[in-house]
Amino acid sequence: MSILHTVNKSPFEKNNLESCLRYAKLGSAVLLIEDGIYAALKDTRFEKEVATAMKDVSFYCLEPDLKARGFSAAKIIDGIKMVDYAGFVDLTIKYDKVQAWL
Amino acid sequence: MKFVIQVNEGPYQHQTADSAYQFTRAALVRGHEVLRVFFYHDGVNNGTRLASPPQDDRNVAKRWSALATEHDIDLVVCVAAAQRRGILDESEMKRLGKDAHNLAPGFRISGLGQLIEGVVFSDRLVVFGD
Amino acid sequence: MIKKCLYLNRRAPYGTSYALEAIDTVLIGSAFDQDISLLFIDDGVFQLKRDQDTTDVEMKNFSPAYSAFEMYDVEKLYVSKEAMAARGLKKRDLIVDVEVLSDSAISDLMDEHDVIFSF
C-alpha cells in the first residue's frame, strides 16, 4: 500500500525529513508543509539528498506555506510539484494512507 | 471519502493547528465527508471560547465553531487531555466541582475511543502535530 | 471492522507527553479489538529503556505499561536496529521483549498496515 508522507519541520533544525527518507519506498510520496518547505529549496545543503530521493519518491510542496515564507516556485528544486490545500486533500486520497513525520 | 483529522497542538503556538483547519475546510469544499476532528494533547486548547486574539488576527476557536455549524462536523476534545489543561463544558464543570466552563460552541468532550472508532469507520486519518 | 493499526513512536519519554499519550491510545485501541503493532524508531527506542525512575522529577513512570501490554493482547512490539545501534542500546537494556527490525523491514511493516498513528 502506498504512503503519503508529510514533513512539517525544517531539515536544518530537525531530522524528520531524514527519518522519512530512510523509510519512504518506491512509489510513495513526500509532501513538504509548514517549515518542511525549506527542504524543497534549490542551493541548500539538502538539495542533493532530495534530488536523489526523487528518483524513487514523488515530492510535493504546499504552495501557501512556500509563499508565506517569501519563496516562489522559481526557487524550488526541479521536479517538485506544487499543491494547494485542495491538492493536499487529493494527495491523501491518491495514496492509501498518510504518515505524518511529527 | 471519509476523513478523520487529528489535531495535536494548540492554536497560535504552532502552525499545525492552522494547517488542520485549512485541510479540513478544503476536504469539505471538495465534497468529502469529515467524520470527526479529534483534538488531542495540547490540541484541546483549540476549543476554548475564552480565547481573545487581537482584532487583526484569526480567531481559531471561532473558526472551528463556524465550520462545525456550516458543515455539521463533529469536533471532539479528548476528555483526559482537556481535564489536565482546564478545558471544560458545563457538565464537566458540575461533575468536577469547578466554577467555570469554557468549551466553544460546536465542540464536545469525549474519550479517546472516539478517535479509534472514527479511524475504524473512515478511509483516512490525517494527523497534524509538532 | 478490524484494521491493522501501526503505532509509530519516535520521541523520547518525559521530555514531551507523546509517549504517555501513545500508551493511552494503544490501550483504548485494544479495547476496540483492532490488530495492533507498536514500532519504536529514532528516539522512540528510549521509551523502552529499563530502570526508569521518575521519583525526583515527580512525573508518572509509565514504563511498566509496556510489559503490561501483553495482558491486552498487544504483543507485536518492534524496534529499529539502526536506532538502537546509533544510541548505544542493546536488547538487554530494554524493559520488554521486542523484535528488532532492519530499516527495510520497517518500510515493509509501514506498508502493510491500514493506518498509522504517529506520536
Task: Give an overview of the whole structure.
The complex is a heterotrimer of chains A (102), B (130) and C (119). By secondary structure, chain A is an alpha/beta fold. Chain A is built from four helices and five strands; from the N terminus they run βαβαβαβαβ. Chain B is an alpha/beta fold and 130 residues long. Chain B is 37% helix and 20% strand. The radius of gyration of chain B is 14 Å and the shape is globular. In chain B, α1 runs parallel beside α2. Chain C is an alpha/beta fold and 119 residues long. Chain C has one domain: DsrEFH-like (Hypothetical Protein Ychn, Chain: A). A five-stranded parallel sheet of chain C has the order 4-3-2-1-5. In chain C, β2, α2 and β3 form a beta-alpha-beta unit. The chains are: A alpha/beta (102), B alpha/beta (130), C alpha/beta (119). Chains in contact: A-B, A-C, B-C. Chains A and B meet through α4 and β5 of A and α1 and β5 of B.
Main attributes?
heterotrimer; A: 102 residues; alpha/beta; Hypothetical Protein Ychn, Chain: A; five-stranded parallel β-sheet; 30% helix; globular; B: 130 residues; 5 helices; 5 strands; 20% strand
Biggest β-sheet strands, sense, barrel of chain C: 5 strands, parallel
The number of E-state strands of chain A comes to 5
H-E order of chain C: EHEHEHEHE
Give the strand line-up of the largest sheet of chain A.
Answer: 4-3-2-1-5
Oligomer: heterotrimer
Q: CATH superfamily membership of chain C, which one?
A: DsrEFH-like
- Main sheet properties of chain A: 5 strands, parallel
Instruction: State the low-pLDDT regions of chain A, or none.
Output: none
Protein structure class of chain A: alpha/beta
Shape of chain C: globular
Compute the number of structural domains of chain A: 1
Radius of gyration of chain C: 14 Å
Strand order of the largest sheet of chain C: 4-3-2-1-5
Radius of gyration of chain A: 12 Å
Distance between the termini of chain C: 24 Å
Query: How much helical structure, as a percent, in the residues of chain C?
Result: 25-40%
Quote the average pLDDT of chain A: 97
- The chain-level structural class of chain C is alpha/beta
Q: Briefly note the CATH topology name of chain A.
A: Hypothetical Protein Ychn, Chain: A
Protein chains sharing the most extensive interface: A-B, 18 and 21 residues
CATH superfamily of chain A: DsrEFH-like
